Amino acid sequence: MGSVRACGYSPIVVVRASRHHRVGGKNGLLSLQPQGARGHSISWVVRAGKGPPLLPPKKEVVEGGGIISACFVGLLTGLSVVIFNNVVHEIRDLCWDGLPSRGGLRELALENKWERIILIPTCGGLVVSLLNVFRSALEDGNSGLKALLKAVAAAVTLGTGNSLGPEGPSVDIGTSVAKGVASLFDKDAQRELSLKAAGSAAGISSGFNAAVAGCFFAVESVLWPSPAAAESSLSLTNTTSTVILSAVIASVVSEIGLGSEPAFTIPNYDFRSPTELPLYLLLGIFCGVVSLSLSWCTSWMIVATDKIQKTLGMPKAVFPVVGGFSVGVIALIYPEVLYWGFENVDTLLETRAFVKGLDVDLLLQLIAVKVVATSLCRASGLVGGYYAPSLFIGAATGMAYGKLLSSLISHLNPIFHLSGILDVASPQAYALVGMAATLAGVCEVPLTAVLLLFELTQDYRIVLPLLGAVGVSSWITSWSVKSKDNSPKPDTDHLSMHNFDQCITKKLLVSQAMKTQYVTVLMNTLLTQVVTLMLAEKQSCAIIVDDHNLFIGLLTLGDIQEFCKLSKETNKIPEELKVSQVCSINDFCETATLTPMMNLHSAELIMNTHGANQLPVISEDLPVGILDRECINIACRALATTEYLSTLTN
């Protein structure tokens, strides 16, 4: 790494990229291809080249080719999801065969079940770990094989009972099918986006046998956040026919292959009186808080896993095994956290015969342990989605809330005579609404959540409570996301980081997006020199190192300003203030760190957890760069634009 030292010593060092790497691309177009040894700084060089003129995208008109492609996407996705679910069921039956009733596992004596409860999820984690290692070793061109291995890893994760869900993998399957169909038939970028939306809709439709909810999921998760949709003439109207057609076909195929029964047994919904609506709004608040707890717990687990990996030097392949073992240990006391399809949701809703209902105390405990188990599975590298855990947590929240309400009103009724004013529905009614509210809060799909529960219940009376609770829960989670931004960020137009889906941020590494020009200072550097250099280098922070260039901390301009306010009461002359004095106060200069090989999705989660706008990138205790939110935004925009341009030149 380059450094400038005068006369053997200099308190301030400006570090610049030490190695340039060639950037290639078809026809001279930009292609992000990081090269170089681990720990080296990486910068990009753009070469001019000849290529076809870039014409403005044409407005899409849904033609016969697009309709046929949508039919293929729906058919293939439906078949793939049916196969995926059958594989999950076969693995589950093979592993858990012999238990008297999976829903009644709580009633079984501990000595008769502890070996299987611990070993089965652990072995599942071991298999997933091997699949992840093989998948990461494949080259980028083997996207089809990677998708297949990921689906197999998800089937093993779910079949062995680990606490995730099948809907995320189903959507991934639909997206992969759409990508394959688009590469064969439709090279147009706008139509490729339409097929991606159609594949996502087909994944949800076949997973829940709910075509309408699948269509709205495609709109909320694919079309609205898409940069291509925002920057081109693509409109929702142009893709409606493909999305609907694909969702309907996938739902029909799923109904033929998996049956027409809903994913879980729906209890009879009863809506007693309009005076009950405020109680559903209060339930929405609780579900919003629970949704935030799941998001926060997952982020914290990811950060903790990264710290453990860096501190102990543990390979990533170990963590899925640890995650499976942890789920097994939790399931010894709370077997309901294991994934057995939606049988556990039926247990919560008390719709399973001969299964004892759960009291309020146990329901509240299940909410907490399910949040922990799901976060452990996600952070450890097990493969699955959030839909099933969200529905479980929401059902437990709604049931506990409904039972508490019933108990409270029964005690107050003799005193205040509430029976004529307030008639409360059964706890199952609140559980159904809680499922939608939690799903909307966790997965940020409020319209999908409302329509999914409406399709499953087929009862118009649930719409108003659903809209109220889902709206409140979504508002709480969205407000929390906005409040995390403690300081204003550069306005980089409407394509903010939140508009890029996770598949883009997971493709890019920190080394591809980080700034390789940064400032390093020593502990005895004067603050006036630090501020002067920050201004000269247009940087808002400096990395603190020791004499051997080993990382110590991060000093921001905000830290210096805050320190100056605290120093007004002293008689120290500003020129005498040093970096070490700033670091000696509270948590100044302490910061989380990133690694070059970490993907941007994990990096953003760490930033959100710590409320940071920039973090240092460290390799073997040496600083190699700075990553801020603008870097992430630019890298994602560049990759999205590159993929879009590649479709125009193919």
Mean pLDDT: 76
CATH topology of the largest domain: Clc chloride channel
What's the multimeric state? Answer: single chain
Give the helix level as a range of percent: 55-70%
Strand content is 5-15%
Q: What ranges have pLDDT less than 50 throughout 5 or more consecutive residues?
A: 1-62, 227-235, 485-501
The rounded Rg comes to 27 Å
* Global shape: globular
The CATH homologous superfamily of the largest domain is named: Clc chloride channel
CATH class of the largest domain: Mainly Alpha
What does the main sheet amount to?
4 strands, mixed
Number of strands: 8
Give your account of this protein's structure:
Keywords: CBS domain, Chloride, Chloride channel, Ion channel, Ion transport, Membrane, Transmembrane, Transmembrane helix, Transport. This protein is mainly alpha-helical and 650 residues long. It contains 23 helices and eight strands. Strands 1-4-5-6 form a four-stranded mixed β-sheet. A two-stranded parallel ribbon has the order 2-3. A two-stranded antiparallel sheet has the order 7-8. Helix 13 crosses helix 14 and helix 14 (427-443) runs antiparallel to helix 15 (446-457). 46% of the residues are buried.
